[in-house]
Design goal:
Oligomer: single chain
Shape: globular
Structural class: alpha/beta
Radius of gyration: 21 Å
Largest sheet: 7 strands, parallel
Order of helices and strands: EHEEHEHEHEHEEHEHEHEHEEHHH
Number of strands: 13
Distance between the termini: 11 Å
Length: about 350
């Protein structure tokens, strides 16, 4: 039996069953059917039902790459292929494992967003150096959007183009209930709560609007993160407690999207957002920024509205026009996702690049 290791800088949580969790589940199932055994390495994991059939090693919130190397050394584990998700590309980790097992094939999947203003000169030089030192140990680079692939080449060197490709994220469209004929000023935000997600811009944009206009507006924010207390304080400062409700994490977003008219994602950093795919799959248009791979799935005025990241005036204008009924998206936004960004397609493309299948 062929053996595969999947190394994910990702925390598994029972209160957050999202798109990547469903990807891992179907990928694991398909590989087992092909006779390929998988060992999964995650940043942290407390057992729960969704992952019952997985063979999982947990790094207990320490370095998942170092845990993997330690286990391989102490238990003499050998793999035909290793795949990395959410890890930093072109680090000494890839060299170290290649020295343990020279014939291994390594596939690095890049989900990592870049800052909107780009990296500093010092960091750009460092990344280019790392590309020359360590990229030779990676057999295949995968970007989750065209934007991501372009950033890989920009960061680590255009000489990697021959072994770099796009595999778009996809979602399980069957689990999303669709919005039908809903006409209410209810908006959803589904996001990790950190500065780069731009939710502070949403609060500021709402503060620009006439308070009478907000009487029947509700914005539910799902997610946790280090910036949550700051966002709550900011909403209180602008007296928006009756408009914005922080709901915490939920494993039921696939059932909840249908209750909202739009999703708002004011992010500054994005590779290719699963939340956008999920919202569109539920026939909920998206208000989002022109960063990362967003423009590869959202078309302004067709399945959502696009504005420049950080432009709170424009976001306020979009919200004002939606709330007052001057603009609206009536197209079924789920059709594009069903045709192009579905989970089975994503899984099949990831399996196709494996040399052991």
């Amino acid at each position: 039996m062929k053996k595969l290791a999947v190394i994910c800088n990702y925390i598994l949580r029972p209160d957050r069953i999202g798109g990547m969790d469903r990807f891992y589940y179907l990928y694991n199932q398909c590989m087992l059917e092909k006779g390929v055994e998988i060992d999964w390495y995650f940043t942290d994991y407390v057992p729960f039902k969704f992952y019952t059939d997985f063979k999982i090693y947990s790094a207990d919130n320490k370095s998942v790459e170092q845990m993997f190397l330690n286990i391989c050394k102490t238990e003499n584990k050998k793999y035909d292929v290793i795949v990395t998700h959410f890890t930093e590309l072109c680090t000494s980790f890839y060299k170290e494992y290649s020295q343990l097992l020279p014939d291994v094939k390594i596939i690095a999947v890049d989900h990592n967003p870049r800052p909107i203003e780009g990296f500093s000169l010092k960091k750009r030089i460092k990344k280019r150096l790392l590309g020359y030192l360590y990229s030779k140990y990676i057999s295949q680079f995968v970007g989750v959007s065209k934007y991501t692939v372009n950033q890989i080449l920009k960061d680590y060197g255009a000489f990697l183009k021959h072994k770099t490709q796009v595999i778009y994220n996809g979602i399980d469209i069957e689990v999303f209930e669709k919005r039908e004929n809903l006409n209410t000023n209810k908006f959803i935000v589904a996001s990790h709560l950190r500065v780069s997600k731009g939710i502070q811009d949403l609060i500021l944009a709402l503060s620009y609007l006439d308070k009478n206009l907000l009487d029947n507006v509700r914005i539910d924010v799902y997610g946790e993160g280090p910036y949550k207390s700051n966002l709550i304080a900011l909403s209180k400062e602008y007296k928006l407690e009756n408009v914005i409700c922080f709901k915490g994490s939920s494993p039921r977003l696939n059932h909840l999207f249908k209750n909202y008219q739009y999703m708002i994602q004011p992010t500054y950093m994005e590779c290719f957002s699963l939340s956008i795919l999920e919202s569109l799959s539920a026939n909920v248009p998206v208000i989002t920024t022109n960063v990362g791979g967003n423009l590869e799935v959202v078309s302004d005025g067709e399945n959502g509205f696009i504005y420049q990241a950080g432009d709170c005036d424009k976001l306020a204008s979009i919200l004002e026009h939606i709330i007052s009924g001057q603009i609206n998206i009536v197209k079924d936004t789920s059709l594009l996702i069903a045709q192009e960004f579905y989970l089975e397609k994503m899984v099949n493309q990831h399996i196709k690049i494996l040399p052991c299948t």
